[in-house]
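Hey, resending since the last one bounced:
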Amino acid sequence: MEVSGHPDLIHLGRMLRDRMDRTLEAEMEAARAAARRTRTLRDLLLSAEDAAARIYLTASDGSLHSGVVAAVGADHVEINASGVPHIVALGHVVAVEVRP
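The structure tokens again:
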């Protein structure tokens, strides 16, 4: 008789496979839920624009921009600081702090 054909091993294999499938399904659902909750930088800037909140933005070159968000594009943000617009590419944003 083959070891792999033993009834106890067949049952154990099915049980482990079912557990693994349930675990995988739970992990995939958790990943989907986390993706739904993830807030993008663009979402944050759009919320700041809607609230007319003052932001402090640090760019990858070390420059600091502060002001009110005037517009948010697909790949950039325009910050109005005392009437002077500053446009920063979203790919260059390192940090953002929003203050109401």
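The chain has two domains: 3-37, 41-99.

Sorry for the duplicate.
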